[in-house]
Amino acid sequence: MTGLVDYFVPAHFPAEGLQRRQARIAVQSVFALLGWGPVACALYYFGGSPAAMWAVAAATVTSVITPFLLKWTGSLNIAGNFLILTLYALFTGLGTLFGGLHAPPVNWLLLMPVYSLLFFNARSAMVWMGVALLTWGGFIGAELLGHTFPDQLDPRLDLAHRAVGVLGLSSMVFAVILLKDHLQSWLVDTIRATAAETRTVLETAPDGILTLDLEGRVLNANNAAARILDQNRDALLGRPIGELVVSLDARRALESAAGAFGLTEEHSAVRADESMFPAEIAFGALEGSGRQSVVLIMRDITERKEADRQLRQARDEAIEASLAKSTFLANMSHELRTPLNAVIGYSEMLMEEIQLMSQESPDAPQQRVEGFLPDLRRIRTAGKHLLMIISDILDLSKIEAGKMTTHIEPFETRPLLDEICDTVRPLAEKNGNQLSLNVDGELGPMQSDATKVRQVLFNLLSNACKFTQQGQIILHARSCDASGQMLFEVRDTGIGMSPEQLERVFDAFTQADTSTTRQFGGTGLGLTITRHFCDLLGGDIHVSSTPGEGTRVCVRMATSLESTPAEKIVETLPA
Q: 469: left (phi > 0), else alpha (psi -120 to 50), else beta?
């Protein structure tokens, strides 16, 4: 029998869920009706009431559809209402045939809201209660209007009729009681399962969980709380929270619990040995069983605090190391500059002496002396190159230390550009490049740091000359009065850069890739210094490039700087 009942229950109903239990009762009610129906049909047949017989037979056959409807639709709502509607039609029809309001089946209409409440909800039960009351009202109204309901049953079979009615009513009441027991059993099992699940969560949670009453005394504590506080679990019960968390009392706990759900605060907690430790505590309010309590979720954050301290210490040490490195580079650069300037100066003096001797005594044998001229020129070139590298390192160390300042003075822009182009032109012609200057309109004067403006443009033009062979290099300048800025653009037809190379073009000691460093030389500091100089001069720099087609660098600088921006913070480069 159990297997047949389960056959009609939809498979998607949870095995231990309420819906499956309700569906089983609905199917069992149909089976009970199938047992009662033939007996009632026989009684009405021999009692001379064929209409009642056919009504019971029709209701019995129709109710058989309910289990199949439940299986096909998978909806207890559809199948349950279909069964209740079938019973309602049967009881109303029997009442019409056997005396109206005085017929026993009319009283059975009270089972409709009961079934609806057990199968569905209170709203559905109220609907069926309304339907039953309206039906009773219809019978009463009919009798008040003088309508007489027939009684088609043979009076001699009245006792048998009542017995069959009691049997059917008992079957339905039994089904209701059975459903009630199933529901009660399900509720108890659910509560026990929920309690067991909650208990498991509490006992296995890594964080300490404390429950407090309104006076701040511990009602319950899990194992993690006892472990964190290094105390016996039973010893925690009944203790004021202020003895366990010194920076917390009952009033503060209630206020925190009444605030935002899950609010976390840092407090100082005490272990059994009276040692203090930092704890992160989340608060929550718990209401139920007529009492209110506060839930505290505690986490020992000693390790996190120590990790933060070590991280801050490591950061401070890294900053100190970076400053020490910058100071060392600055000192080293100063120490190297002096002998390098001497080497360059002496090489130039020797070259001038040799040239002067050649002019004063052209006929004297100078072969042995003039043989040193190429070496002296190499010494001077190498010395100037090394001096330029050291100057870049010195500038970078000042930038990293935030000590780079500006010397603001007025100067004419166009003569400065002509001077820069004249300086760079030999470098451009060395690689067969053509350098040109394009100016839109009157540039006007600038009030800025002329030395740094010169160095920015010189770096950009030098890079363009270095990475361009047999091409064109253009310096384009224009004044933008609306924004108060001077715009400079350097374009070349050189090797260009890929998007990946553009992403790191401003990184210190970096060129497009290692091959360019080996082929073209340089430290990779030029664009890094240029970017920071543009920042100091109230502007910015943007680079766009296409491999094999060339590079375009746009620089904006403020036309007028009132004074050195002492509060200007230059981004510290990574060590």
A: beta
Q: Please tell me the CATH code under which domain 205-300 is placed.
A: 3.30.450.20
pLDDT one-digit tens code per residue, 438-448: 998 888 889 99
CATH code, residues 409-558: 3.30.565.10
Can you say whether the dihedral through the CA atoms of 556, 557, 559, 560 is positive or negative? positive
Cβ atoms 122, 114 nearer than 8 A: no
3-state secondary structure of 300: strand
Write the pLDDT tens digit of every residue in 77-106: 888 888 888 888 888 887 887 777 777 777
Tens-digit pLDDT profile for residues 305-353:
889 989 999 888 888 877 777 666 666 666 666 666 777 777 777 777 7
Q: Give the sign of the dihedral formed by CA 525, CA 526, CA 528, CA 534.
A: positive
93: phi then psi, degrees, rounded to nearest 5: -65, -45
The single-letter code of the amino acid at 523 is T
Nearest C-alpha neighbor of 502 from the set 513, 491, 517: 513
- Name every residue whose Cβ is closer than 8 Å to that of residue 50 and which is 6 or more positions away in sequence: 44
Instruction: Just give the CATH number of 306-400.
Output: 1.10.287
Q: Which of 106-110, 176-180, 478-482 has the highest mean pLDDT?
A: 478-482
Domain extents for the chain? 2-198, 205-300, 306-400, 409-558
Counting Cα atoms < 13 Å in the Cβ hemisphere of 432 gives 5
Give 534: exposed, middle or buried? Use CB within 10 Å, 0-12, 13-18, 19+: buried
Q: Give the 3-state secondary structure of residue 558.
A: strand
Dihedral (CA of 15, 21, 27, 28) sign? positive
- pLDDT score recorded for residue 370: 61
194 Cβ contact partners less than 8 Å away, ≥ 6 residues apart: none
